[in-house]
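User: Hey, my collaborator sent me this sequence without any context and asked if I could get a structure. I don't really work with proteins. Can you help?
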Amino acid sequence: MQGQELNISSELKYREAIILYSDSNLSIKDICERTGVGFCAFSSYLSKHHRDLIIKRHHLTKYANVKLRGSKGQTTSAHYKYKDAIAACDSVEYIEYNISQIARIFDVNCSSLASQLRRHYPEIVPRRELERRRMGITINLQYGARKWSKEGYATAVEMLQSSDMTIGEVASACNVSYTGLREHIIAYYPQITTQREIKRTNATGRKMRGERNGNWAIHEPEHSSIEKYEKAIELYRTTSLEVKEIARIASVNLGGLRYHIRIWHPRLMVQRRGFDENVPIEQTKRYKKSTAEKYADAIERLKNSNLPTSRVAAEFGLNPEVFRMYIKEHYPELTAVRGMTKADNGKTVSNRSAEKYAEALNIYQTTSESLKSIARRLGLTYNSLGGFIRRNYPEAIERHKSLLASMTVNDEQRNNEQEYKSDGSVPLNERL
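Assistant: No problem. I've predicted the 3D structure and written it out in structure-token form, which is a compact way to encode the shape of the chain:
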């Protein structure tokens, strides 16, 4: 239903533009300027919903199922504009005329016709000149690149062959015409064009800072973005403040700052997490630098002493459970050094705690005695024992509950039997 409403609104929006496109020869750009619709949006709408009008306008009824134009190649308009002149260049009837004369006969630009021949029909001109020489038609003109042109573009051509610079960058560096250099490369150095196209194809989807991507632009932040986030990045590098606080101090948007850091400064994120900058960010744990500083002294104390984790946590005013989780996640080697072992259920527990609470755990999961009674009888702290079992042996709690439930059922049956023996009535379970 929503898609139908969208199509109806689009039809109403582009109705006037569609009528002009169908009934006139105006270009899409002129139609968009007259009707006030977007050029890209209208072009996309035509391709998706009115392909028949495009085929009709360009007389492509024989190619209704063929893509009109790829990412490169001759445009449809250029094909129809120059097709008669190009056919004449390849015809014996016009063999006596040169390219300039043929362009004037068919009322097209001479340079544009020559460019179309070089780019899209490179075999016509050599074949034509060979036939003209065979027939003895010659005007004593030099073909190919002129000497002054070769010398003028020599440095630029060498730079294009040996570097990844764009034609515009090379033209600017060598102080030559961009258009002239581009046409010179297309006409006389097709191997450079092919080589650069292969490089661009291989670079598609590559986003590494300082390197070129698929459109051959260098993947790097804009100068304005660098200046905008310079103060924030410095605070991120040198302090342990939260990103939200840094954004407030630097007066920048929080989402924009996070995006800027994630895209352009992943190494800083790795360093802030306490790893070497060469470690891939996917292999690092995500936590705040302020958190690392919060636990730094306690971790150092734990490394240099044999005190229990709970006592160290109490000494520094930390939550023992959260502190244990932090150590397991970020300092697994410390867990191993401090005599930790794996229980049968896969949980990592302290050897000291496992030995201390082993008897109480066995009694708890095999009898109906309450945990508080077990702790009192064995001289253990009830809260510590309960936390140990809850963290590391949740299945023991389920066993204890199942045992209590089965004992309750047995007690009820026993009571029913006693009542039956005393008054001669049928037990409830037998009646059911």
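In plain terms: The mean pLDDT is 80. You can pass these tokens on to your collaborator as they are.
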